[in-house]
Amino acid sequence: MRVPGRPRFGGIFSGDSATFILLFGGGFLFSAFFRTEAWRKVLFGPSSVDYPAVLGLVVLCCAIGWRSLLRRGFVWAEPAELTWMDYAKADRRRIVSARLAGMLTGFVVVVGYLAALMLAVGGSTPQWWLASAVLLAGATILVFTTARRTAFRLEAIGPLLIAAAAVVIVAARLDATAVEYVGAALALCSLLLAFGGEAVNRAGRAVLLDGWNARVLRSMAVSFLDPMMMLPEATAVGSWSLRPPTAVRLAWVGVVGRLRYASALLLVAFAVAVGHVAVPTLPGPVLVGVGSYLALTPFGAGLGVLWRNPGRRRWLGSSSRELVLAHGLLLTGVAVVWAALLWVALLALGTTFSALSWVTVVLAVASVLRTVTRQPVDYSSAGFVDTPAGPMPANLVRQLFRGPDLLALGIAILIWAG
């Protein structure tokens, strides 16, 4: 039974702005299938379509979607539902299950649309359509059977294995029949992982409240245009000590405390390599620059958390320049590791990037440092300017894109120079 006062389906059929966005966005996305020739030039250019690479990109999207669902952000409940609404007609288990179904539906729609668009634009044969459908079905079953249960040890390796399978599909140039076997293997793995653990819809109050707090934090970050609120905190690092507290030691402990994002380094590296083969029209600086920025940002969170805490900086006793240099040195080391992973993936696929494209890794390091050292958002002067889309708070937008602006400018220069 739905919660009283809460609109059905998120209000998308209410006739309000949500309905307009759904109709306009759905119409725009659907219209792409009537302009396949134009999209073929955009996605593939004059080159022929590499269908194994396209299916490899689909598998990588499945891996990324699986990893996002393994965070189980749908497991939350409002504090009121856990206290005085205990006697209301609101079934927590049913609500959590409905959220899981909604996120799983979104996963299928997004990945299915991407696969259908690329295959339609490429004018593929029915065999590749069937292979894509089998892949998506197998991945959906696997995602559902793992996301519906509590976390288990080493579950983060699963998306990495699927990403590695995507590289194998592209490198070995598997045909449609072999790709279908890969999809069947994903469904078989779901049977092996379906047993054990407890269903997440039976989560206790502590877990539901932790999920609610994380959701509120994300909502506030979006509402106040301050994504730095979502910088990940470091976990305990065991025997590592901060005595004596120095900038380099703190930077090292900050990176070690966020090693849970190490799998994202490999996942993003695989995505950049396969994307380079599947969509040859994408410039190398864009792929390498955006990929390295996304992979390195979690490891720059240590400086960001420190930068927003003046008391902790005074306790450390180091100047701002020393802090930036120390964290920049460690972040450069992480960037070298990511670049090495990307180089190995490119070598396996038999392709490479230009020398100018690799320069964007250095730009990404500088952009991450610029991003995490931004000052708290100043709302006193929004600086509204008139645009064709209506008034825009230019000063808030400037603060929001501090960091990515350096990367975008550098990528534009490198593309022009190349």
Task: Please explain how this structure is put together.
A two-stranded antiparallel ribbon has the order 1-2. It contains 17 helices and two strands. Mean pLDDT is 87; it is low at 1-5. A hairpin with a 2-residue loop joins strand 1 and strand 2. It starts with 16 loop residues before the first helix and ends with a helix. The protein folds into two domains: 34-223, no CATH class; 230-418. The chain is 65% helix and 2% strand. Helix 14 (320-349) packs antiparallel against helix 15. It has helices spanning 17-31, 36-43, 51-69, 92-122, 126-147, 157-172, 176-193, 205-223, 247-256, 262-278, 284-296, 301-307, 310-316, 320-349, 355-372, 394-400, 404-417; strands at 384-387, 390-393. By secondary structure, the chain is an all-alpha fold.
What's the short story on this structure?
Helices cover 65% and strands 2% of the residues.
Sheet of most strands: 2 strands, antiparallel
What is the approximate shape?
A: globular
Name the strands of the widest sheet in spatial order. 1-2
Number of domains: 2
Report low-confidence residues grouped into runs of 5 or more: 1-5
Instruction: Estimate the helix proportion, in percent.
Output: 55-70%
Gyration radius, rounded: 23 Å
Q: Assess the beta-strand content as a share of residues.
A: under 5%
Tell me the number of strands.
2
Q: How many alpha or pi helices?
A: 17
Question: What's the SSE pattern?
Answer: HHHHHHHHHHHHHHHEEHH
Mean pLDDT: 87
Distance between the termini: 59 Å
Class by alpha and beta content: mainly alpha
